Structures are given as C-alpha cells and as structure tokens.
Amino acid sequence: MKGGSRSSFKVRFGDTDPWGVTYYVSFFRYANQAVEDYLSSLMGKPASTVWRDPKEGYGLPVVEAKGSFFRPVRYGDEIDAFVEILEKREKGVSFLCSFVKEGEEVARVELVCVCIDPNWIPRKLPSGLKRREEERDV
Fold first, then answer.
1. Tens place of pLDDT for every residue, the chain, 138 residues?
2. Quick count: other Cβ atoms within 10 Å of Cβ 130?
3. What are the backbone angles phi and psi of residue 100, rounded to the nearest 5°?
4. What is the C-alpha to C-alpha distance for residues 8 and 138, in angstroms, rounded to an integer?
5. 120 backbone φψ class: left, alpha, beta (φ>0; ψ -120 to 50)
6. What is the crossing angle of helices 127-137 and 24-43, to 10°?
7. Which residue, 7, 66, 35, 14, is CA-closest to 129?
8. CA distance to 5, 7, 18, 26, 64, per residue, from 33 (Å)
9. CATH class assigned to 5-130
10. Do the beta carbons of residue 64 and residue 111 sit within 8 Å?
11. Is residue 131 within a helix (H) or strand (E), and if so which, with residue range?
C-alpha cells in the first residue's frame, strides 16, 4: 500500500449487536481512529490537533462516509485497518480504510474530508499534509 498506514483493533462487546457481530457503525468509528492515527504519523502532530488545529487555523470535518461490509467480525476478533489516501484535492482529501481479519478483507470505509477555516469556509489543505504525503509517495 503506497503511502498508507496500519492500525489494529480488538472488537469489544460494546461494538457488537445482540448477536455478537460487529455493528456496522463501529467500523466508521474504527475508520475515524485509523485515519487519525495515519494523519498524526504523517504530519508529525499529536492526535489532538489532527482534526482541528486552532494554531494553524483549520478544521478537517468528515463530510461524507460510506461503507461496504463483506464478512462478519465478532466480539473478541482482532482486525487490522489499512489507510491510504484515495484522492487529494486543493481543499479536501478522501481516505480508504480497508479492514482485514486473518488476511481477508472484511469491510471497507471511505471518508471524505474538507478543510475549513475557523468560520467554516473551505480553505486549502494544511501544507504539512500536502508536503509529507508527497514525500511518502516517492
């Protein structure tokens, strides 16, 4: 995976439905955490300033999310989340998060983010994100 990262999760009881299968909403929470881990590593920033950095004057809200679910994942299972950038635009970025259990993809989540200024007006992506992702692509 070019320019991507990996996070691992153990499915907790509260992440499952009454039958012990991971509730689909949990995958969106896992994807959000995996993208946060990826951006924190990529930009060399603490996770607390990845989605919103008042000092640099930007926020990075998720404006679209979609998921596909291929196999059930149960309470106690361990899964890996692999994140990569699908598309980068001047004012936004989309991520693909693939979830893998024992070598098999079990789910996939796409998150689309738009960079905004403190007044919620779209602005250019932070230079740290653009520059460091380009360095990883080399």
1. 445 789 999 999 999 999 999 999 999 999 999 999 999 998 888 888 989 999 999 999 999 999 999 999 999 999 999 999 999 999 999 999 999 999 999 999 999 999 999 999 999 998 877 554 544 443
2. 14
3. -125, 135
4. 26
5. left
6. 90
7. 35
8. 12, 8, 24, 11, 16
9. alpha beta
10. yes
11. helix 127-137
Residue pair 23/15 in contact (Cβ under 8 Å)? The answer is yes
Residues contacting residue 18 through CB under 8 Å, at least 6 positions apart: none
The dihedrals phi and psi of 42, each to the nearest 5 degrees, come to: -60, -45
The domain limits of the chain are 5-130
Q: Which of 58, 51, 112 is nearest to 85 (CA)?
A: 112
Cβ-count burial 60-87 (b if 16+ within 10 Å, e if not): bebeebebeeeeebebebebbbbbebee
Residue 107 in tokens? 């789910």
Classify strands 78-88 and 62-69 as parallel, antiparallel or unpaired: unpaired
